């Protein structure tokens, strides 16, 4: 398949990618996996703010309204005609099933009409691949900490598309914990940026929240305990009539979470004998996490890399990058492709048809 693509378009492969796993409708045109010609993102944050979080049915309906417009805009920005596209990449899991189905349906229709390969992409893999776009020289192996509203994974990236999951959350994802704590503090949604902003004004040592490391040899995470500790602190102080410093609460919470994330990531890098650590996912935008991981990594002689803020969020450019490397590995989907809301990292779509 790779040979066919290259013969068709010289040395270039143009991927049209679609991402609709949660509340961002995004489409991108990516050349040869790492050169982003366009990356259009239509966010629904303002729509969901009044609900305090993403409402799946509302998100799905908004994707239906936006997806064709966003795809066309991505082509216009890239200066590419639809007939020039060599393959279609789309997120088919994990995520909200209704939201995923919108993107998958659009991608299948385009692949069928254009008679080009269809590549089903794992959303988590897409976050990892955002780092290939950010740093054109980055190559496996490396260790990746993926932290977002729905995912917390520590992954050894052995090669393109080959992953060993060292650990993941046993309860709340990191971003989920940030959102729940922010709600309890009366900050609103999304919680991550709001807590990060407050934390920079507070004292991380003023309030000591627990650090949960689990078993000595475990790379798994657990954030429900610290979330409960923050809620108990807030309720206790309110019952006593004490004035609460939200800045100190935010700083203490963020410090406790980032210390655990950084400790396990550094230990994972040591175990796998890799000198490179990369961040991925929405929480990779957190300034406290970036700062602490960079500092601790430097002490251990480790390189720490992370994507720009746009590439930390859900976006189609990262899906286009992942689709490119999946296609090089011979992984293609067919028109039976369906949404898989609980798709695991490393799982590849098995085609029903033989093309």
TrEMBL record:
GO terms for biological process: tRNA threonylcarbamoyladenosine modification. The keyword tRNA processing applies. It is found in: Cytoplasm. Substrate binds at residues 146-150, 179, 192, 196, 286. It catalyses: L-threonylcarbamoyladenylate + adenosine(37) in tRNA = N(6)-L-threonylcarbamoyladenosine(37) in tRNA + AMP + H(+). It holds the Pfam family TsaD. Its cofactor is Fe(2+). Residues 35-320 form the Gcp-like domain. CDD domains: ASKHA_NBD_TsaD_bac. The keyword Acyltransferase applies. GO terms for cellular component: cytoplasm. Fe cation binds at residues 123, 127, 314. Belongs to the KAE1 / TsaD family. This is tRNA N6-adenosine threonylcarbamoyltransferase.
């Amino acid at each position: 398949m790779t040979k066919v693509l290259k013969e068709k378009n010289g040395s270039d492969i143009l991927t049209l990618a679609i991402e609709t796993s949660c509340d961002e409708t995004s489409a991108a045109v990516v050349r040869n996996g790492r050169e982003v010609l366009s990356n259009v993102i239509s966010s629904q944050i303002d729509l969901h703010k009044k609900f305090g979080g993403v409402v799946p049915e509302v998100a799905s309906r908004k994707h239906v309204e936006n997806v064709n417009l966003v795809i066309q805009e991505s082509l216009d920005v890239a200066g590419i005609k639809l007939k020039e596209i060599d393959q279609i990449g789309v997120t088919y899991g994990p995520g909200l099933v209704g939201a995923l189905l919108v993107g998958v349906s659009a991608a299948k229709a385009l692949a069928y009409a254009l008679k080009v390969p269809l590549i089903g992409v794992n959303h988590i893999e897409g976050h990892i691949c955002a780092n290939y776009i950010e740093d054109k020289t980055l190559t496996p192996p490396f260790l990746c900490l993926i932290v977002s509203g729905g995912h917390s994974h520590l992954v050894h990236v052995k090669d393109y598309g080959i992953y060993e999951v060292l650990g993941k959350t046993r309860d709340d994802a990191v971003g989920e914990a940030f959102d729940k704590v922010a709600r309890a503090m009366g900050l609103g949604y999304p919680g991550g940026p709001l807590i990060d902003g407050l934390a920079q004004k507070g004292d991380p040592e003023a309030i000591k929240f627990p650090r949960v490391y689990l078993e000595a040899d475990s790379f798994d995470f657990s954030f429900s305990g610290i979330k409960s500790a923050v809620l108990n602190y807030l309720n206790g102080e309110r019952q006593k009539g004490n004035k609460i410093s939200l800045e100190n609460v935010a700083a203490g919470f963020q410090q406790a979470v980032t210390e655990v994330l950084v400790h396990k990531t550094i230990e994972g890098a040591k175990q796998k004998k890799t000198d490179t650590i990369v961040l991925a996912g929405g929480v990779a935008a957190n300034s406290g996490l970036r700062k602490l991981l960079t500092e601790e990594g430097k002490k251990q002689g480790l390189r720490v890399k992370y994507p720009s803020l746009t590439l930390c969020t859900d976006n189609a450019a990262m899906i286009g990058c992942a689709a490119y490397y999946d296609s090089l590995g011979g992984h293609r989907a067919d028109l039976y492709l369906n949404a898989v809301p609980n798709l695991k990292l490393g799982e590849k779509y098995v085609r029903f048809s033989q093309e």
